[in-house]
Structure formats: structure tokens, C-alpha cells
Specification:
Blueprint: H1 2-15, E1 55-60, H2 67-81, E2 86-90, H3 97-109, E3 114-117, H4 122-134, E4 139-142, E5 154-157, H5 160-177, E6 185-189, H6 195-209, E7 217-220, H7 225-238, E8 244-247, H8 250-263, E9 269-274, H9 277-285, E10 290-293, H10 298-310, E11 326-328, E12 333-334, H11 339-342
Parallel strand pairs: 1-2, 1-3, 3-4, 4-5, 5-11, 6-7, 6-8, 8-9, 9-10
Antiparallel strand pairs: 10-12
């Protein structure tokens, strides 16, 4: 039976999760397919998308108390619906680590084929995730990393440092394009105690060094609309002129935009972060310069990879026959020139 074979194989993967993947030259999961058939037309989609063995995927995500987090849950649900061979078992989103541990315990007891998990606290969920791996259930860790490499078969991450680098690199472009001398650059960060905020700020500062710039004014908000408006108002009072403003999060950016409107301060190039639909609409309207994506599709990608793992498949676009151990998504800059490309991925704040 598929379940028995897959479980036995994946139990071994869980025990040896930190080992490097074995390289190989096969590019297809279909042993009958050959590469020398010149008459075959190129395919737009991978053979992996064809229906395979029915698999049950358990999903545990965050409480939807933030636009980006809500998009994590909805994108996972939407992706699972695309596949007739996925039995999708989603539990209620939570910010309670104890509740999420209980959810994963239930998935283990139910013997699901794979688990996709955005942990409310990576360290707190490490033990139960490792338990799932040792039970032969591959775990796909999304966004917040576990504290052990044995707790996940695959980890999918956004690039927080890369977000800062993208924002800073674009800020340097604005300085050059507008021929700004002694520009005033401001930053509205998220929660300063979080490593993700620290990574974003470091990436921004590092990228600004390339054009000889630094952050002149900085405040930190709480990833909420209310805090964004409050901290932006404080910033505007302290800085009578701002040439470039980078706000880490488009949800709190709703409040930032409200503060800018109230103060009638739109002299600066306003750069956002995360990639909300409303930020992209502001870009189209000319109210905002750009935003940097932190993809809310991470869990959707997790569903796709969990399906491949449970069906004992790899990525057909890679020479490597196994699903990668770690995937870090890009942090592109969305501007007026490319906003239509990214708008379908935008989430509502």
C-alpha cells in the first residue's frame, strides 16, 4: 500500500533530515517518458500536476488577524482545491502555541500523509513537528523556522533581509533618478524585538550604503493600522522634509497613508512592504512609489510541495530528483511598470 511504503521512506528522511540530498540526473517522474522524442510538443505544465495517489494534507496556520496572515490561510486553501488528489484538512488558525501543538498531535494520530505548518512559535512547535517527522509524516515548515533541522522535511521562507535590500536598492535608484542631494530617508519598521524586523532594517541599511546614504529618521510600529498611523504622525512631526520613506508592512501602511493624507505630506517617494492589493492600487494611482513583496503564497507553495512529498515525487523542473530541503522566495519590487503582473497576488489589508 502507498501509505505504508511512503511512511517507511519518510521516517528515514525524518531521522536523516539534516543530510544533503542525493544528486541525480532524472528530470521526470514518469519512467516511460524519454527525452529523445523530438516530435513531442513542449508542455506548459509539469507532469506533476496530473492527478496521482490521493493524499491527506493537514494544514495549521495563524489566526487571520492581519491581512498577510489571512492571505496565508486563504492561499493554502485555494491551492489545495486545485488538486483532485488532495484531501485537505485545515484546522482553525491560532496564535496559541499549545493549541497548535494539539492540532499537530491530532494530525499525527489521524495518520495524515503530510503536514503544512506556519508555527505561531517555531521553537515551541519544534518538538511536535519532530514527532510527526519520526512518525513518517513529512512536515513543510512555512515562514517561521523550527529550532531543529530534524523538525521539517522542507522549509519555505520569505526573505526578510532581502526585502530590506530590495527597498534600499530601489531607494538608491530614486536618489539617482531624481538627482537628490542630501536626501532625507525615513523608515517605519515593524516590531523591533522580532528578528524579521531586524533583518529588514539591516538589509535596508546595507543596501543604502551602496549609494552613500543612511536612514535619517526611524520609528517602529506594531504591524497594525493604528500603530502605523500613530508612528507615522510622530515621524512627520519630527521630520519636516522626507525624500524617501520605507514602511516595512503594507497592513500598517494603511495607517501610514492615513497620516500622510491628514498631514498633506506626499512629497516623498513612499515605498511599502509585503505586497497588499491596496498598496498596489495606490501605486497604479500614483499615491505610492513601490512596494516590496513578502509573498503570502508561502503556504500555497507548501501545499504543492507537501503533495509531491506525500506522492513520492520531486520537482520536474529540477535535475535533482528530490524536493529541496529549503526554499527562500524572492523579494521583488513592485512599481507602476510591473504592478499588473503582481496585482493578482496582492492581499487585502
Amino acid at each position: 500500500m502507498k501509505r505504508t511504503i511512503t511512511s517507511r521512506r519518510l521516517a528515514a528522511v525524518g531521522i536523516a533530515g539534516a543530510l544533503a540530498l542525493v544528486a541525480a540526473g532524472c528530470t521526470s517522474n514518469d519512467p516511460q517518458q524519454t527525452s529523445n522524442d523530438s516530435s513531442a510538443a513542449p508542455k506548459a505544465a509539469s507532469d506533476n500536476d496530473a492527478p496521482g495517489d490521493k493524499v491527506t494534507i493537514g494544514f495549521s496556520g495563524p489566526a487571520a488577524d492581519h491581512g498577510w496572515l489571512a492571505a496565508i490561510n486563504s492561499s493554502a486553501q485555494a491551492e489545495a482545491k486545485k488538486y483532485s488528489d488532495i484531501d485537505f484538512k485545515a484546522v482553525e488558525g491560532t496564535n496559541d502555541a499549545s493549541q497548535q501543538i494539539a492540532q499537530i498531535e491530532t494530525f499525527i494520530n489521524d495518520k495524515v500523509d503530510a503536514i503544512v505548518l506556519l508555527p505561531t512559535d517555531g521553537a515551541a512547535l519544534t518538538e511536535v513537528a519532530t514527532k510527526a517527522m519520526n512518525a513518517g509524516i513529512p512536515v513543510v515548515n512555512v515562514d517561521r523556522e523550527f529550532s531543529s533541522p530534524f523538525a521539517a522535511r522542507t522549509t519555505i521562507l520569505g526573505d526578510n533581509y532581502g526585502m530590506g535590500v530590495s527597498a534600499g536598492t530601489y531607494a538608491c535608484k530614486v536618489v539617482k533618478d531624481k538627482k537628490l542631494s542630501n536626501p532625507v530617508i525615513a523608515e517605519i519598521a515593524g516590531i523591533d524585538s522580532l528578528p524579521l524586523t531586524q533583518d529588514r532594517s539591516k538589509g535596508f541599511a546595507d543596501a543604502l550604503k551602496a549609494c552613500g546614504q543612511t536612514v535619517d529618521n526611524r520609528v517602529a510600529a506594531q504591524f497594525t493600522v493604528e500603530s502605523g498611523e500613530k508612528e507615522a504622525s510622530n515621524l512627520l512631526q519630527a521630520a519636516k522634509k522626507i525624500d524617501i520613506l520605507w514602511n516595512h508592512d503594507d497592513d500598517q501602511g494603511v495607517g501610514v497613508m492615513a497620516a500622510l493624507d491628514q498631514a498633506n505630506r506626499h512629497e516623498m517617494a513612499f515605498i511599502g512592504g509585503a505586497g497588499s492589493a491596496n498598496a498596489m492600487r495606490w501605486i497604479k494611482e500614483g499615491k505610492m512609489e513601490a512596494t516590496v513583496l513578502y509573498p503570502p503564497t508561502q503556504a500555497a507553495d507548501g501545499i504543492k510541495l507537501a503533495r509531491l512529498l506525500a506522492q513520492d515525487k520531486g520537482l520536474s523542473d529540477l535535475v535533482q530528483v528530490e524536493v529541496p530541503k529549503r526554499v527562500v522566495l524572492n523579494a521583488p519590487v513592485v512599481t507602476k511598470e510591473n504592478v499588473d503582473k503582481y496585482l493578482p497576488l496582492g492581499f487585502e489589508s
